């Protein structure tokens, strides 16, 4: 511990105190810059950056269920089923539904009317994020997708200007928001396509589903525009 007299007269004491003051100021600044560039960018300050990477898909679950007309089927899935979910930047979910037509023919008088299209609806949700879509089994079969995402997909492969690297990261990295529970609900609005000469039953449909997690692996690097010669 140095006294005021030491600081006035002792050069070694002056140097020591100056070094301590320098490190107290410099180290927080250094670690702030290092954290800003921890995503692989250089510098990390406001500037122009190229966001490189691609979205891939990891299957969370798949299966098939008979869904009765007017009686929705639902199930809960979780990323706990995956061994490495914590290592994935999960930025959305894609559900694919496919279905046929089990409507019986109904006899020779029904051949002219054909099968009527049923409407198959699906809804998926993860926390506050949800989406729904429906499709029809025209011609005896059909399929459709339901997609919901929670990142700025417009930045993928783009040059982003006027932001810091950290600000860009906050828009393309879910920071663990993709972990946890996923809900899926499927419903069928069956249509037997009856007519005065044709009486058929259509009680539901067999629906296959695949739930895929959208994973975005990315890098953020400074962008330098090369002028045309």
Detailed description of the structure:
The chain has 229 residues and is of the alpha+beta class. It folds into 2 domains: 4-36; 47-222, Jelly Rolls, CATH 2.60.120. The protein is 17% helix and 41% strand. The strands form 2 sheets. The chain has a 5-stranded antiparallel beta sheet with strand order 6-3-9-1-7. A 4-stranded antiparallel beta sheet has the order 2-8-4-5, with no helix packed on it. Strand 4 (119-126) and strand 5 form a beta hairpin. The N and C termini lie far apart (64 Å). 23% of the residues are buried. Mean pLDDT is 82; it is low at 21-42.
List keywords for this structure.
9 strands; alpha+beta; Jelly Rolls; 17% helix; four-stranded antiparallel sheet; 229 residues; five-stranded antiparallel sheet; 41% strand
